[in-house]
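Training component of the fellowship. As part of building independent skills, the fellow (R.M.) carried out the full modelling exercise for a liganded target. The chosen ligand was nicotinamide-adenine-dinucleotide. The inputs are recorded below so that the supervisory panel can assess the work.
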Amino acid sequence: MSNIKQMIIDGQRVAAKTGRTYALHNPANGTLLAQISDGDGDDVEVAIASAHKALGIWSKIPAKQRGILMKKAEHLLQERAVDIARLITLENGKPFEEAQQEVLFSSGYLSWFAEEGRRAYGDWIPSPYPHKRLLTLVKPVGVVAAITPWNFPANMITRKIAPAIAAGCTVVLKPADTTPLTALALGEIFIEAGIPAGVFNIVTAKDPAPISEAFFRYPEIVRMITFTGSVRVGKLLAQKAAERVMRVDLELGGNAPVIVYDDADFEKAVDNVLAIKFLRVGGESCICANRIYVQASIYDKFIAAFSKKVQQLKVGDGFMSGAQIGPLITQVALQRVAALVDETKQRGGCIVTGGHVLTSVPYQQGNFYTPTVIADCQDDWPIAQQEIFGPVACFYKFSNIEEVLARANHSVYGLAAYVFSQDMAKIIRSIESLEYGFIGVNDGQGYTHEIPVGGLKESGIGREGGKQGLWSYLEVQSAVINLE
Ligand code: NAD
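Fellow's submitted model of the complex:
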């Protein structure tokens, strides 16, 4: 079959050593998109050797020069935004316009970290001894293993790779099995930009387990694992990394509370909460609204206005004109969301709109679920404690600030939270109390390159973006120089 997508190792397109491939399907209609090289541990070993060899070259290139190549990659990514967005819509299903925004946003990490890479300062430290000098220098961690999810197939990659290579590290990436095409297109761009062979290697695979096992096989070479995905897998990787005292960066799941106080700008709050819940991969996002707490005096009115807008959302193939919500990533994901909603209904959740799988034409071959609103949910129900990861908005009523902040914090997750209010004191009290790594106030747009994002509690360890994002990939070395 000619449509076989090969991996990128040592600057070359290569097939899996076994010759195996797996089929990649479009989640909107089930059509076959491509056969993907199905790598395993042997392929990872070659990629690690290439990254190790490249480390010796790349880490010695001045950060300014590395940054010039990274900015070339940024420009190429921007030039190809439409083509790469098309791949994202094909393999992930998200609306084409949203995919284009993702590609452009993902390119921004390249220039941000190209510039931050030049600011990895060491220190000349005042010495307590007249005859000794003390200094620190900053070095790349080494070869980095990266594992990324499917929901932002471009952005989750550049948010890791850009700081890693800006710091002078080299990388072996395993992208999600459902979105390899975007990853491989990014890999091509890095090669074209002149980033040396072996700096960014990509091993695709259907089964992730042998890949991560190989990542842990050479702890003296692979010094860090950076992972974005579920808490379950993050814990598995952290355990293995701990045995080898390997550095970890974990960007894991979330259960974002949204708090709408009764003094919020009503219309803006409705529109923003709608965007936070539905207009980012149709609710398959780690920072999207999972529990929407609305103050009692505006609760019914808010749900009515919100539900009216939800009923107008356009669901369909991401290439359909005006599409706002695409399919879920797989049948398994679709059935999980359907089961969670059914369970919530049985417990007494009130389905205001939606609540079923879409099976009629033109949805019958894809993984589509109706945008759903459920009122009167309770904090101890599974839907309040798990990530919904689908187009389902759940509402909870509250009466005062102390109560809602305690309820919002009652979660093992601590990734993102949102607050809507026009009262500055209430806003500040909320920010200070909420145990979440990222807080949006009267804002539904999410984060930007300049700020660090990451989770508290089980949502993760480490930060991506901002100036902190670079330091995940740097080691500090100290020297004491005796002048006598
Ligand atoms: P997942 O953990 O199942 O998979 C994520 C990646 O890990 C994929 O590449 C997958 O192939 C790989 N993987 C799965 N099992 C593995 C194993 N045993 N060993 C090594 N790798 C393995 O998660 P998912 O369903 O693909 O992604 C959704 C999850 O990601 C959600 O929990 C979401 O909240 C989280 N997420 C977090 C952030 C963040 O910034 N914190 C961003 C996006 C997604």
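The panel noted the following from the submitted structure. DSSP finds 15 helices and 23 strands in the chain. The chain has two domains: 4-252+459-480, 256-448.
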